[in-house]
Design goal:
alpha+beta; 2 helices; 5 strands; 24% helix; globular
Length: 93
């Protein structure tokens, strides 16, 4: 299976609802590396790398996020895999 990288911007009620911590937990469960952070515009940004099927699983999860979130839209960009990350972490604001 191919290694893939995805860049997501999740919009809606996604800050203050444990979206970053839940994303980190889900990404780690899927064996992905990368990061998640809050953006100043109220969105949450995610960069994740790993096996294509697991990256697709994270994308599917991000469409709804944790139960406390209300995801209205997920802007998705597929990128070339770089292998630059050693783990999945929350980036401070």
């Amino acid at each position: 299976m191919a290694q893939k990288r995805i860049h997501l911007v999740c919009r809606g009620r996604v800050q203050g609802v444990f979206f970053r911590a839940s994303t980190q937990r889900e990404a780690r469960r899927l064996g992905l590396t990368g990061w998640v952070k809050n953006r100043a515009d109220g969105a949450v940004e995610v960069v994740a790398e790993g096996e294509e099927d697991q990256v697709k699983d994270l994308l599917a999860w991000a469409q709804h996020g944790p139960t406390t979130a209300r995801v209205e839209r997920v802007d998705t960009r597929w990128r070339s895999y770089t292998g630059e990350f050693s783990k999945f972490q929350i980036v401070p604001d």
